[in-house]
Design brief:
Elements lengths: L13 E10 L4 E8 L12 E6 L3 E6 L10 E6 L3 H8 L5 E8 L5 H4 L3 E7 L3 H13 L7 E7 L8 H9 L4 E6 L9 E2 L16 E6 L2 H13 L7 E4 L15 E2 L2 E2 L6 E3 H4 L7
Parallel strand pairs: 7-8, 7-11, 8-9, 9-10, 11-12
Antiparallel strand pairs: 1-2, 1-6, 2-5, 3-4, 3-6, 12-15, 13-14
Bound molecules: flavin-adenine dinucleotide and FE2/S2 (inorganic) cluster.
Length: 278
């Protein structure tokens, strides 16, 4: 029988190798990955890939590196279940499967020339790290940049070295808060919304990018609207359970939208009336 070779299907599983790993916290691990045939994934900040472990399963995971890094890409994975725990056990040199990248990311071209207010809650820093590193590597293409990051406890802080570097840069404003301090914490204490009133912005030229746990969105959006940021300048990313990643199975549907294809990054003005979204 004639052999069928699938070249350009969006379902195509590509072989990839783990180049390095790093434990970030008790639950989160960082992986640097390269496609085995030297291909590039060419993602936009905010897009995700499907990570496939043979015989175990497949999970959607955001790419957390800058699209300007072409020969490899990074992911940050929280161990919560079957696939993610198995992924945590893999070491440098292990082979995995990749599909994607999928979905719509942050509208970089629209953000260029404007001020940015980037708000990350917990693991939401992973997809936003892709945007942040891109913006910092193309710093002259953007106006003022504010980064606000919040997590429950200091031990949950991701990418600590980078947070330290951001806090030292003079060309951006970085602030961090934790819900509960420990004995060594000398920074802000309180939920992330407590940082927003103090941020000095020009609302008409500020675009907001938010990723965090669902509970955070309503509160953060309320604060942003209070500051005068127009609804159509607020972008946020939604996580839904996903299977195909390709707009076919309907698993990730919010009304007439597929999170995997129309999102995961959405413009607030377009989805604000979808009660299932929040
Ligand atoms: C677009 C997108 C991007 C994502 N990016 C990241 C990322 O960068 N890093 C990361 O660690 N995780 C990310 N996730 C979540 C990740 O896909 C889930 O944690 C993973 O699918 C769990 O699979 P599992 O087999 O390990 O757990 P399972 O054994 O399937 O489930 C364990 C627990 O996790 C919950 N869960 C499963 N899938 C999801 C999901 N899609 N969203 C929320 N909860 C889920 C289950 O309800 C259950 O409580 C993303 C999800 C989406 C949709
Ligand atoms: S995951 Fe199948 S339609 Fe979105």
């Amino acid at each position: 029988m004639e052999k069928v070779v699938i070249i350009n299907s969006s379902y195509r599983l590509k072989k990839a190798k783990i180049l390095s790993t790093k434990k970030l916290t008790e639950k989160e691990k960082f992986f640097e990955i390269a496609l085995s045939d030297g291909e590039r994934i060419d993602h936009e900040p905010g897009q995700f890939v499907m990570i496939s472990l043979l015989g175990i399963g497949e999970v959607p995971i955001s790419v957390c590196s800058s699209p300007l890094i072409r020969d490899s890409f990074d992911i940050c994975v929280r161990a919560v279940g079957k696939v993610t725990n198995s992924l945590h056990k893999l070491k440098r040199g292990s082979e995995i499967g990749i599909r994607g990248p999928y979905g719509k990311g942050f509208p970089i071209r629209m953000l260029e020339g404007n001020d940015l207010l980037i708000i990350a809650g917990g693991l939401g820093l992973a997809p936003l790290r892709s945007l942040i590193t891109y913006v910092l590597d193309s710093r002259r293409d953007f106006g003022r940049v504010h980064i606000l990051f919040g997590c429950k406890e200091p031990k949950e802080l991701l990418f600590r070295d980078e947070l330290e570097q951001w806090s030292e840069r003079t060309d951006l404003h970085y602030a961090c808060t934790v819900d509960r301090a420990d004995a060594d914490w000398a920074g802000n204490v309180g939920v992330i919304t407590t940082l927003i009133p103090g941020v000095d912005i020009e609302p008409a030229r500020t675009f907001a990018a938010i990723v965090g746990p669902p509970v955070m969105y309503n509160f953060v959006i309320k604060e942003l609207l209070n500051k005068g940021i127009p609804e159509n300048q607020i972008y946020l990313s939604f996580e839904r359970h996903m299977k195909c990643g390709n707009g076919k199975c309907g698993r990730c549907q919010i009304q007439n939208l597929y999170c995997c294809q129309d999102g995961p990054v959405f413009n607030y003005e377009k989805i604000k009336n979808m009660s299932e979204a929040f």
